[in-house]
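User: Hi! I'm working on a homework problem where we have to compare a predicted structure to a textbook description. Could you give me the structure for the chain below?
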Amino acid sequence: MSDLRITEAFLYMDYLCFRALCCKGPPPARPEYDLVCIGLTGSGKTSLLSKLCSESPENVVSTTGFSIKAVPFQNAILNVKELGGADNIRKYWSRYYQGSQGVIFVLDSASSEDDLETARNELHSALQHPQLCTLPFLILANHQDKPAARSVQEVKKYFELEPLARGKRWILQPCSLDDMDALKDSFSQLINLLEEKDHEAVRM
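Assistant: Happy to help. Predicted structure tokens:
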């Protein structure tokens, strides 16, 4: 091979390296989804979201009105509007549903029977609400690390999810602050449901 051809080959390789390093442009933007997070006071909504945002647990204060957090994942950003779960706040939840693309419902799987009954009623109301009934739901049975925690199967049966949520997009997962890998996996499943709904909207 002549010196000229060798020089041309090296120049072409330099050009390819330049294009690979400098001309591929910025990475594609991650999609963003607006979600509403509901559940009774003490269910652990704020702590779970704060942990996902890598915030210090020492600074966690129970939400009394509402707060918004941008929760980053590798393939999406979830803009989560968390609503306080006190008795005097829950009656106003529906005012904040508009614009939501998905729902996170957190329940305390180790709570008293009375609180579990209240949580069941609130979840039933959300699943049937006109602004939420077609949206993907992630239902988190929190506090699985507590001795009194009910299993996912017990929660599913008590909340009557199979007959009530038939035909809807929903995921029921156990969780606790001690198992962040499982929590992140639950949110990954929710993101998959959100993406599926996006693709269906495009096809229509």
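For your comparison, note the following. Residues 30-201 form a domain with the Rossmann fold fold (CATH 3.40.50.300). The radius of gyration is 23 Å. Good luck with the assignment!
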